[in-house]
Specification:
The structure is a homodimer.
Chain A (H helix, E strand, L loop, with lengths): L20 H13 L2 H8 L4 H10 L2 H11 L5 H6 L2 H10 L2 H9 L3 H8 L4 H10 L2 H11 L6 H4 L6 E3 L4 H10 L9 E5 L5 E6 H6 L6 H4 L7 E2 L4 H11 L3 E5 L5 E6 H19 L11 H27 L2 H6 L2 H29 L8 H31 L2 H31 L4 H29 L1
Parallel strand pairs in A: 1-2, 4-5
Antiparallel strand pairs in A: 2-3, 5-6
Helix pairs in contact in A: 1-2, 7-9, 8-10, 15-16, 16-22, 17-22, 19-21, 19-22, 20-21, 21-22
Chain lengths: ~450, ~450
């Protein structure tokens, strides 16, 4: 948006699209003055997505004041762009009539996306505001399971019988009153409404009127089963460069269409979820409160407390060894921490490879072999300087040998564990991004302490 | 693809699009028999992206044999879909004539994507194979910096003077011979080739021939500066639900167009990069060798070795304390590990919020305040059971109090550090995903050991 950088911010590298103070200032000034016209003027140049971001970034009180002052101007698009938690808050603050007007402009897929996470009372308010035909469409979409293609699809379709020619198709489109706002293909169907191919609008536009649609159909054509998981849908769009894809029911009949912008949004969400899960942070947003955020993060820390207790248990087996040689206490976190890092590397690569379907039965054993060899090499490369340094600093060559050996063992185990834990979790139907970290670091901690202290007890005392 | 699950694999939860053994088997059988026709038949039902995945998943030897046998059938699309490292390998194995034919079918943006990472000799071979006009277009794209919109854009354009009507536009399209394979908008330009708006093909198709194009133009219209970073481009497509966007030079003149499928691919790559960087794993793929992978991972482990040494240095300050009370050595990893986990949570949320532009000058201080409060709450919630348990197990109430206090301190520091480190790195122009982890865990390790052992020394001895 604004190109000039504000100088007093802590985030100076603001990209071209960041909402900076230049954008925020007139909005807050209009709010302070209680000037609804100035507020509308300040929001005017902003895209609905940016207005939504702005509403998410201000504090609760400011947001409520903005919603009250902006009031009637809040449209369906802005509501669609809001994050769930903020959206509920804004919807609750809107007058029923404003809400009804806002929702009626939306395509059915956007209405579904808008209301699926609302509570039932709010859902009913919105459903009541819709025209009867739209209401039926939305309720039908809601009857599909969450995260399915059926929830994602749009029911406004542009279809043509497969035997039509270009002229018939164009005349039909010109006669239609209620075309979807965005569409990129004309779907060809057989008499039983089963899609048989599609024609890009570009080809439709550039071909003579007498050309048969079937002759213009794209070579590659894919339908999406209505019950398919939305993650798989996003994968298919990305893998096969789809722009839109017909959705079919169990009898292969056309029930809707999914477009790439929705698939892109899902891909984005799934990635975000994976990153946060890998870090032991549940879903949630920056606008959540302290209490909600604490509730979301404590469980993972509590699990870590238990596994850290396990490490402590291992160490306690060697209390006498440590009492005899306190240097061991100084050095033991090095071995554990190196194992934790190497395990996380291996695990992250594996979790991503599973998610991107790059790790399959065809290459699993080759990749495991590679990870273990990498672990061994890493261990040897790093054990040498570490061992030497320890031997020199503590004047104890055997101590250097022991920590080096323990490091090699732990990095080997880290590599193997980092691979096998996510693969095994996937096999058990548990999201590897969610649970791998705990297991892998427990393994590397326990093995790290055990190898180092055990070897030390055997070799040094 | 194949729905039946192979039973002898370790990854039984194969999704709908995974290449499983059912797909691999006929390919490998054809290869073993040296039967080129059977191989072509086995590849026939596969999308180019799947053939590319298959070539990535087999070992080097099998891949070379497949390329030799499939030979002339390898087309530009398959080459485009291959990962860089494998692509070089395959291109080197192709006959020059096959390569030339393969490349000539591609749009210029795909050619640029194909050759930008190749060595110069391979680049020249491909450039020589292109028609003169395409060659110039590709060379012009390559003159833009890597990762810029200029590299990403396609130069095949569908434009119309802004004063045209629908009939003129359609007649023009029908008369064009060399339209891009995929296009979704007609870009309106003024006499100086500056884009002034665009019309979706759907509107063009459904409007009467006499309608002025300017009357059909989309309300929201954005151009992309040719020097913009590709990450920003992907953000704009996702944020503003763009399907295609005109690219303009410094004088606002139209130089190309970027379509959403390319933006989606970039979004996917940027996410992947962030995930791998957060885990201290550089770019690379499962098909890289042991040596390349070791080289990529060792630096991060080496950095961790240095920071772990720092922790050891802290612990060594308390050798006497530990010698007097060995239980401290047993318990001290708990405090450090909890801090590391809490810091990683806070850091990951912050890194993502910076990447998604959800963290701005408008909400920075509010978010910092929230993180610190969450850290404090987490600390108190977890310090109570930990302190009680330690007091009971070791029969030492003061030891319980010390570990509880140390935990609260470390979780507070972890929360603040997890926020401030990535924000500061961003300010310094360093990718926060790349370097935050090292700093945050160093802080939590050092503070964790120092707080626990320091408090213990002061209170218990």
């Amino acid at each position: 948006m604004a190109d000039d950088q504000s100088t007093d911010t802590m985030l100076p590298e603001e990209g071209d699209y960041e909402l900076d103070r230049e954008v925020m200032r007139p909005v807050l000034a209009a709010l302070a003055a209680g000037d609804a016209a100035a507020l509308t003027a300040a929001f005017e140049p902003l895209h609905a997505a940016d207005i939504a971001d702005l509403l998410e970034q201000v504090d609760d009180e400011t947001r409520h004041a903005l919603v009250r002052l902006y009031g009637r101007e809040i449209d369906g698009e802005i509501l669609s762009e809001l994050k769930d938690s903020i959206r509920e808050d804004v919807i609750a603050a809107l007058e029923p009539q404003v809400l009804a007007d806002a929702v009626r402009e939306l395509e059915t897929d956007d209405v579904v996306d808008l209301i699926e996470d609302l509570d039932e009372a709010q859902q009913d308010t919105i459903l009541d505001a819709l025209e009867a035909s739209d209401r039926v469409a939305v309720e039908q979409s809601l009857s599909y399971p969450e995260y399915s293609a059926g929830r994602l699809m749009q029911r406004e379709l542009v279809v043509a019988p497969e035997h039509w020619d270009v002229g018939q198709a164009i005349d039909h489109l010109r006669a239609q009153e209620d075309l979807p706002e965005q569409f990129y293909h004309m779907i060809l169907v057989d008499p039983r409404m089963r899609p048989t191919g599609y024609v890009t609008l570009g080809r439709l536009l550039s071909a003579p009127r007498a050309t048969r649609l079937a002759d213009l159909a794209e070579e590659s054509f894919r339908t999406i089963p209505v019950m398919q998981d939305e993650g798989e849908v996003a994968y298919a769009f990305n893998q096969y460069h789809l722009i839109s894809a017909p959705v079919v029911d169990a009898d292969d009949r056309l029930v809707g269409v999914i477009t790439i912008d929705d698939a892109m949004a899902i891909l984005d969400e799934e990635h975000e979820e994976d990153i946060l899960r890998l870090a032991g942070v549940g879903e949630g947003s920056l606008s959540d409160g302290v209490f909600a955020t604490t509730l979301r993060r404590v469980p993972w820390l509590a699990v870590n407390l238990v596994t850290a207790g396990l490490s402590a248990l291992v160490i306690s087996q060697f209390e006498e060894t440590i009492a005899a040689l306190v240097a061991l206490a100084v050095l033991m976190p090095i071995v554990a921490s190196m194992g934790g890092n190497a395990g996380t590397q291996s695990m992250t690569v594996t979790v991503r490879a599973i998610a991107t379907k790059d790790l399959t039965s065809a290459n699993l054993w080759r990749v495991i072999r590679r990870e273990v060899l990498v672990g061994l090499h890493n261990g040897i490369v790093l054990a040498l300087p570490l061992g030497l340094l320890v031997a020199l600093i503590f004047g104890a060559p055997m101590l250097g040998a022991v920590i080096g050996a323990a490091l090699v063992i732990n990095l080997l185990v880290a590599a193997a564990g980092g691979m096998l834990v996510p693969v095994a979790l996937e096999k058990l139907g548990v999201d590897p991004a969610l649970a791998s970290g705990v297991f892998v670091t427990t393994i590397t901690d326990v093995v790290g302490f055990y190898a180092f202290l055990g070897l030390a007890g055997a070799m040094l005392l």
